[in-house]
Amino acid sequence: MNTEDIQSLWQQYDEKLEKNLRLNKELLRKINLTESRRAMRVPLISDVVSVCVMIVCLLWIVPAFPRMLGHTGLIICWAISVLCFVLATILGLIMIRKLSGIQYETAPVLQLQKQITSYRKTYQLYKKIGHLTMPLLLIAFLPVSQVLINKINYFDYPFRFGITIILCLLLAYPTALWMYKKWYEEKLDRTNQYLQELREFEKE
To answer: Which of 3, 22, 89, 91 is most buried by its number of CB atoms within 10 A?
Structure first.
């Protein structure tokens, strides 16, 4: 075997190695992006469901305003409920737009990371507002809903009203914290991990 044969073999080996590296890179990209999209599907579905619930609540209580007339407390509760639902709907739509606009197949990894970071900032704002407004919304929405469902004015039963609010808060806060952790934070962390692995591999 002469020198030219050895050089030809080395060239063929280099070409195969380069091809294998390229295939491995494409495979890793496909796997990581697929896992990223799958992980972010849960927050997206959660956002869509939340917005639908908010819209249904608005469609339910907004036309019921005439039934609140005659009691200042009910009017204030109705206004607070509508305001909270509208705010939650707007933030939910922003989050849906951010997630649905991510192009996993074509966008560079760095751009994907920036989009996920942008979504995380919106989610953190949503979470903060949710924690701050949850007691207010429960206190406001409960009397309104009871007037519409049971035709009961909770302001006539302050003790029952107080006990119900406390029980709702004790149930709502742990549930919300669990949902934030399982449906958002863990999925965001996992997606960032997939993208970071892919970005580090592409640098090599």
So the answer is: 91
What count of residues does the chain have?
204
Among the residue ranges 25-29, 77-81, 84-88, 115-119, the one predicted with the least confidence is 25-29
Residue 58 to residue 127: CA distance in whole angstroms = 20
Per-residue pLDDT of 136-193, as tens digits, reads: 888 888 889 888 888 888 778 878 778 888 887 787 778 777 877 777 777 778 777 7
What's the burial of 68, exposed, middle or buried (CB within 10 Å: 0-12/13-18/19+)? Answer: buried
User: C-alpha distances in angstroms, 79 versus 56, 61, 65, 75, 129?
Assistant: 16, 10, 9, 6, 17
In the chain, where the domains are located:
36-199
CB of 163 closer than 8 Å to CB of 138: no
The model's pTM is 0.72
Strands (E) located in the chain: none
Q: Which residues contact 85 (CB under 8 A, 6 or more apart)?
A: 54, 57, 58, 61
CA distance 202 to 204: 5
The three-class DSSP label of residue 106 is: coil
